Amino acid sequence: MAIPGGFPPPPPRPPFGRYRFSNPLRREYGIRLLTLTLPEPLRLVLTRALRRPPLFDGQQTPLAVQSAHCRRLNDAELARASQQTKSTLVLTEVEVTRRTLEAPLGSISRMTRNTLLIAQGVQLRRLYLALVAQLGQAAALAVFQQALEAVG
């Protein structure tokens, strides 16, 4: 028996391909985790910069992310470090943060990603406060802004 008018149209397919490698809600949650401990001026600068479209679409080799057990400078070492060293550390930490935020869904567990982002936030806060003590707030924000522009 034939159906009058043909078959009904197939139901629309959900946009699985769009969220195969990334998810905007996951990214936003990661930005919120990262900025929990940051001072307000730095939080605004980082949030605005990290909400830009991702640099990586997840189709290439999974991004390398930092270990949760990496050694970072303690407060005394950070206080003695030169402004150039602190700027380099800011650039490195911002790049690692971006890579962690943009890591494809299957490449890193949710718990590991959340732990890394919280640790990154604490480290970025420590670097910001060390730069504020050495240069002042406006110059410290400029160092972070320059690092964010260099990372993309």
Structure commentary:
The protein has 152 residues and is mainly α. The chain has six helices and no strands. α1 packs across α5, α4 runs antiparallel to α5 and α4 crosses α6. The longest helix has 26 residues.
Helix residue percentage: 55-70%
Mean pLDDT across residues: 82
Number of helices: 6
Helix and strand sequence = HHHHHH
Structural class: mainly alpha
Query: Any idea what the radius of gyration is?
Result: 20 Å
Distance between the termini: 61 Å
Silhouette? elongated
According to DSSP, the number of beta strands is 0
Low-confidence stretches: none
Strand percentage: under 5%
Largest sheet: none
Layout of SSEs?
Blueprint lengths: L23 H11 L5 H11 L24 H6 L2 H19 L8 H26 L1 H15 L1
Question: What is the structure about, briefly put?
Answer:
This protein has helices at 24-34, 40-50, 75-80, 83-101, 110-135, 137-151.
Highlighted features:
mainly alpha, 152 residues, 6 helices, elongated
